[in-house]
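Re: [ENG-882] Designed sequences occasionally contain unexpected residues at chain ends

Forwarding the minimal case from QA. Structure tokens:
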């Protein structure tokens, strides 16, 4: 970048603009979001479910302390690996963070690749508020252990195919929650997720790369994680008493590394499984962020698009958001 844009001056609390920077894992969202935030006096609100948890840094490609020092970041390191946040908790916290940024007369950037998190904020999801039923949840967890996550997901699909379509079969916790709500309320989980118009003026920016290049970046990132001490990070979490069965420690990367540390698989097998699972995850992310979605303005990361994105945001804000 050779020129500098003057800081945006607008009554943010009144106009309530929200810029979303979204895209798949390893596409380059962090670097672009930092450039945008620095130029436009913005703050970043994470929309990545893995960044919520302390002690999980390398395996989540969490922004480094140096990067976080450049621009205020929110919803990073806000809970512990055994204190699993619900979607409703995230939505509430994200809205509070965005509103506080507006009060500071700054631009909020919602940045991440967790589709449910982004849609919950931008589409005004009304999330089912059924209180957890511990005995029922424990029974569902035992059922999941007996039949496995894929079969459990199929059972949900037979009851509520729309809900099942929005949940990763490997995400046992969310599958159990959907079944729990159905059993407690007698209503489909999907039917209870209503929407209301968003109170924000939203601009969605999508970052993309050709799939083969994205896979190469995924593979390179995993090797960088190993070199950066990922095994030691997972060992530290296990030594602190966090169970490998936790949703956080069974997530992509952590589950494979925990299995390696427990002697169940080799390091080479763990790396190969991480690559395979991450590629599947990238394909699932594409179901949330479709290239043909008219609400998303797509940019190729191959074109170094940060400056053009900054100009587009500036023009959008000046036009009244």
């Amino acid at each position: 970048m050779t020129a500098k844009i003057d800081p945006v001056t607008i009554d943010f609390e009144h106009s309530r603009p929200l810029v979303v920077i979204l895209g798949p894992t390893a596409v380059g969202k962090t670097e672009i979001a930092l450039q945008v935030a620095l130029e436009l006096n913005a703050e970043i609100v994470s929309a990545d479910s893995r960044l919520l948890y302390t002690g999980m840094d390398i395996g989540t490609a969490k922004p480094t302390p140096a990067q976080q020092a450049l621009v205020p970041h929110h919803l990073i390191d806000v809970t512990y690996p055994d204190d699993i946040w619900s979607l409703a908790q995230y939505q509430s916290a994200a809205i509070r963070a965005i509103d506080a940024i507006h009060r500071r007369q700054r631009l909020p950037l919602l940045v991440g690749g967790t589709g449910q998190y982004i849609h919950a904020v931008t589409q005004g999801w009304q999330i089912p508020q059924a209180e957890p039923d511990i005995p029922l949840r424990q029974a569902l967890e035992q059922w999941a252990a007996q039949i496995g996550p894929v079969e459990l997901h199929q059972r949900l699909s037979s009851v509520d195919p729309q809900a099942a379509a929005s949940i990763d079969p490997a995400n046992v916790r969310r599958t159990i929650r959907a079944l729990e709500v159905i059993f407690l309320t007698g209503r489909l989980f999907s039917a209870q997720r209503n929407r209301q118009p968003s109170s924000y003026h939203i601009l969605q920016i999508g970052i993309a790369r050709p799939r083969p290049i994205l896979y190469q970046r995924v593979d390179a990132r995993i090797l960088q994680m190993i070199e950066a001490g990922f095994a030691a990070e997972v060992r530290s979490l296990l030594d602190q008493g966090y169970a490998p069965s936790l949703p956080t420690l069974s997530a992509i990367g952590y589950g494979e590394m925990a299995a390696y540390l427990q002697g169940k698989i080799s390091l080479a097998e763990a790396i190969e499984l991480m690559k395979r699972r991450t590629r599947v995850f990238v394909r699932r992310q594409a179901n949330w962020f479709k290239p043909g979605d008219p609400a998303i303005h797509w940019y190729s990361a191959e074109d170094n698009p940060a400056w053009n994105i900054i100009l587009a945001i500036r023009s959008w804000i000046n036009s009244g958001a």
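QA comment: On inspection the terminal residues look reasonable. Confidence is low (pLDDT under 50) at residues 1-7. Proposing we downgrade this to a documentation issue.
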